[in-house]
UniProtKB/TrEMBL annotation:
GO molecular function annotation: fatty acyl-CoA hydrolase activity
Native source species: Coregonus suidteri
Gene Ontology biological process terms in this record: acyl-CoA metabolic process; fatty acid metabolic process
Transmembrane stretches, start-end: none
Domain BAAT/Acyl-CoA thioester hydrolase C-terminal per the UniProt entry, residue ranges: 2-206
Protein name: BAAT/Acyl-CoA thioester hydrolase C-terminal domain-containing protein
Length: 218
């Protein structure tokens, strides 16, 4: 597996590997972390995603994606005929079999959420994940960064703000204009702040601690 390949690399600490997911990638990261016996990340970063669908032992990523796309009728359009996809995941199901069991998460988890996300129900998902982890007694592992006015695409700093763009729906190959949400200034604030904190989170959980009394022999 890709995880084992990283573990076997001579420049990688095998017990200090993180998983990072964006959008549907969050579903992948959470499903692997909760259910895989082979992949045990040291920590996880999840950006603009949801636990309200999951990838099981008998269901591929493609099948999960197609299952979401089949709920297309729940999507809305705005006054410019841009697709608002977030309703496809709403309401967040109460049935534990329809979402990732957050109580199974045993490593530190960082959620990054844009409060104006028009593509995924990231805000509602983050709230439900927190409640699930509080009930399970592992909420101490959870850190949430939530940004007013930011949309779905929260990426490394200094990239252009893309509020909406052309998108191809699977499996029918239908071309639509997808609304991601967010305003330019809040988006740039979210980019810069979240990236700094993501790097800090990864340093905290992945880097070896160098004791101050140990002196360099260079």
């Amino acid at each position: 597996t890709a995880f084992r390949l990283l573990q076997d690399h001579p420049l990688v600490a095998a017990d200090r590997i993180a998983l990072l997911g964006l959008s549907l990638g969050v579903t992948v990261v959470l499903s692997i972390t909760a259910y895989s016996e082979a992949v045990k990340p040291r920590c996880c970063v999840c950006i603009s995603g949801s636990h309200a669908c999951r990838i099981g032992a008998t269901q591929s990523i493609e099948e999960t994606s197609q299952g979401i796309d089949k709920k297309y009728t729940k999507a809305r359009t705005d006054e410019e005929n841009r697709i608002i996809w977030r309703d496809v995941l709403l309401p967040i199901p109460e049935d534990i079999d329809l979402k990732v069991e957050m109580g199974r998460i045993t490593c530190p988890l960082l959620l990054v959420v844009g409060q104006d996300d028009q593509n995924w129900a990231a805000v509602e998902s983050a709230d439900d994940m927190k409640q699930m982890m509080e009930r399970a007694g592992n909420s101490h592992l959870l850190t949430t960064l939530s940004y007013p006015g930011a949309g779905h695409l929260i990426e490394p700093p200094y990239g252009p703000h893309c509020r909406a763009c052309t998108f191809v729906l699977q499996p029918g190959q239908q071309r639509v204009v997808m609304l991601w949400g967010g305003l330019t200034k809040p988006y740039t604030v979210a980019q810069e702040d979240s990236w700094e904190k993501i790097l800090g989170f990864l340093r905290e959980h992945l880097c070896h601690i160098v004791k101050h009394h140990v002196q360099s022999r260079l």
